[in-house]
Design goal:
Blueprint lengths: L1 H9 L2 E3 L2 E6 L2 E6 L2 H17 L7 E2 L1 H11 L1 H4 L5 H11 L7 E2 H25 L1
Antiparallel strand pairs: 1-2, 2-3, 4-5
Helix pairs in contact: 2-3
Bound molecules: calcium ion (CA) (2 copies).
């Protein structure tokens, strides 16, 4: 079942808010929900940077830095120097290969998203 899903995912083609799923049952076009669009955006952003150098499926430190700089500029203001970037990479790099793979990246995105959620939740409490 999981293998089948992976195959379906591998043949996803994006076309402005819709995607085409090719499986044994043939092609079908599906309109994406907001959450599905967000998920595919995260994947696309990761790939945009991970493909630049070396391993195409992993972010090396310079790719991570470019991603943070361009895509999370507010957060990047807290990563001021090389030491801060080194320690962030060390925190994210769960398997210790000195690169950030998609799973490690997702852990990071989840963390940041949960922090944002907590922040907005507390904002409402003050009203
Ligand atoms: Ca790379
Ligand atoms: Ca790693």
């Amino acid at each position: 079942m999981e293998e089948e899903m992976r195959h379906e995912m591998a043949t996803l083609q994006l076309h402005d808010g819709t995607f085409e799923v090719t499986s044994e049952k043939g092609k079908r076009r599906v309109r994406m929900t907001n959450l599905e669009t967000s998920m595919s955006t995260i994947i696309a952003v990761f790939q945009k940077y991970s493909e630049r150098e070396g391993d195409k499926h992993k972010l090396k430190k310079s790719e991570l830095k470019e991603l943070l700089h361009d895509e999370l500029p507010d957060l990047m203001t807290h990563v001021k120097d090389q030491a801060a970037l080194d320690s962030l990479m060390e925190t994210l790099d769960a398997d210790g290969d000195s690169e950030c793979d998609f799973q490690e990246f997702m852990t990071f995105i989840s963390m940041v998203t949960v922090c944002c959620h907590d922040y907005f939740e507390h904002e409402h409490e003050d009203e």
